[in-house]
Structure formats: structure tokens, C-alpha cells
Amino acid sequence: MIAIIINEFLKLTVKSSGAEMVSIKNTITSKEYLWQGDPVFWARRAPVLFPIVGKVHENTYTIDGHKYELPQHGFARDMHFELVDQVENSLTYVLRSNVETLKIYPYKFELYVRYSLENNKVLVNYEVKNCDEQTIWFSLGAHPAFNCPLEANEKFSDYYLEFEKEETVSTKLLDNGLRNGKEMPMLKNQKTIPLQKDLFDNDALIFDDLRSSAISLKSYKSKHSIKMDFAGFPYLGIWSKKGGSPFVCIEPWLGIADTVGYEGEFKDKMGIRSLSKGKSFVAGYSLEIG
Question: Which residues share a beta bridge with 205?
Fold first, then answer.
């Protein structure tokens, strides 16, 4: 099922499968900003990551001594969400734990995803509710992909990413999607990352301890831009498929992949959140379309 909300600036389309955004268009020009999921490169567009971000070691994890299996980024992105509220400028979806989820994630929960339009901004808000009789543990993240280039006469390398503040940071290195404990310096008192064909040869760029809470995708040749405000998210992933594919993902995360060989309890892995019985957790990010 597809749902659409429109204002004078933007037209947002979302599907019930995965509660995934499938289109962000300028209302006047019909310019498409969201990657359209070409399977030649990457078939998804903006998946919701829950109850993990990234991979767990050997796709298995442990809760109270019991082993469970989860694919990369969890199961929410492949499940049907119910559209529970639709008004002029917002859509709200919910995924509730069920027999299928309890086999691979032994907690009762409700995951709400709400999309709103506010002038030239898309607001994305999440709420996790603990419906269990015990504390639950989870991670949560977003994986939106954006067309890059945005203009037919431009190329990938005509674009760059710009943090709101100067950063001195390294990226965490991965082996087959798992953190290997090594880091590679990326920025030293700098704000920008030029997008080059080989930038993602070693998988995603993964940052933490950023001074910035916003990042923009910009062009050297045109005025189009996308600014993401990710305040409250401790990790930021940036990814495109190896070889200079025509999109870039900017990913605010509340969790992170396992380290190579991790076999500890789920609640002890890096980036896991706890939520007490009857409580809710909320987080969100925004996209300003320029």
C-alpha cells in the first residue's frame, strides 16, 4: 500500500512494506531527491533499521544464554507496517511484535514511524514502546539513500558532504560488515568530504563523537542540496555501493555493528538501548530539501 502527503514544497510517498519512504519530490519541478532503488546498484530506498543496526556476529546474538538469528539491520525493513493515522501533512505507521518476530527477537514491542512535512522539510520520528513484562533491548537507525547526482549533466564526483562544524574524526573499519577494531583518519579540522569513486571501497564510513548534528549533500555545480539534522543519534554512517554508484546514503544510527567475533550478551553489545516495562523511547531526524 502506498500513501502520499503533499504541501507547497514537497511530495512524499511512503509504502507500508517496511514503512519505507519511496519518493521525495519537489512539488513544483517534480525533481526526485530519493534514490529509486535500481536493483542493478541497490534495490532499497530508505529502510528502517530495527532491532539492530549493522550485522551481528555470524548473524546470531544471545539473550539470557539463548541464541537467535537476525539478518543485517534487523527485520523491520522487510515487514508490513500498519498505517494507523493519515492527516494532511503526516503519516504514522506501526509494527507490532507477533508470532513471527518473537521467534527471532523475544520481546513484545510496538515500533511507530511517523513522517511529516513542514515547509521544505521531511520530519521522520520513531517511537519504540515496551509492551513486554521485562526490560527490552534494541537498536534503531535509518538508511535513506539520495540521488547523486541530482542533475543529468553532473556526476558523482561533482558532489560533496559538508558537516555543520569542523571535524577531526576517523572512520571505523569493517571486515565483512563487522567492526575490526581499527580506524582510519578521515578529517582533520575539516568540514567537507568530497565524493569520489573509491571512497567506499572499504564499505561504509562510520563516525561517532561528532561535533556536528547536521550534514549536507551539496554540489559544486548546482544549487540543489539535502541537509540532514541527526541530533540525538550517536553514530552516523555514510555509504554507497562500491564503484561510484549514483546514490549516497546518509544514515543516523542509535546502534552499530558487532565487533569481529563478539559472542557476549545482546544487552552488552555497543549501541544497544534498554527500555523498561511500560516505557517508550523516541528519536527522530529531519531532511531539509534545498
Answer: 238
pLDDT score of 243 more than 90 = no
Domain spans, the chain? 2-271+285-289
C-alpha 189/C-alpha 89 separation (Å) is 40
Q: How many angstroms separate the CA atoms of 126 and 185, rounded?
A: 32
Q: Would you say 248 and 226 are in contact if contact means Cβ atoms under 8 Å apart?
A: no
For the chain, what percent of residues have pLDDT higher than 90?
98
What is the spatial distance between Cα 281 and Cα 187, in angstroms, rounded to a whole number? 32
Fill in the DSSP letter of residue 285.
E
- Alpha carbon of 101 to those of 51, 130, 136: distances in Å? 10, 14, 14
pLDDT of residue 244: 79
Cell, residue 54: 549493522
Distance CA 35, CA 158 (A): 17
3-state class of 246 per DSSP?
A: coil
CATH of domain 2-271+285-289: 2.70.98.10
Instruction: Confirm whether pTM is higher than 0.85.
Output: yes
Rounded average pLDDT over 52-74: 97
Cell of 49: 533499521
- CA 182, CA 188: separation in Å to the nearest integer? 18
Q: Quickly list DSSP for 244-269.
A: T-SEEEEEEES--PPBTT--SBGGGS
Residue 203, pLDDT score:
95
Query: What pLDDT shows up at residue 213?
Result: 98
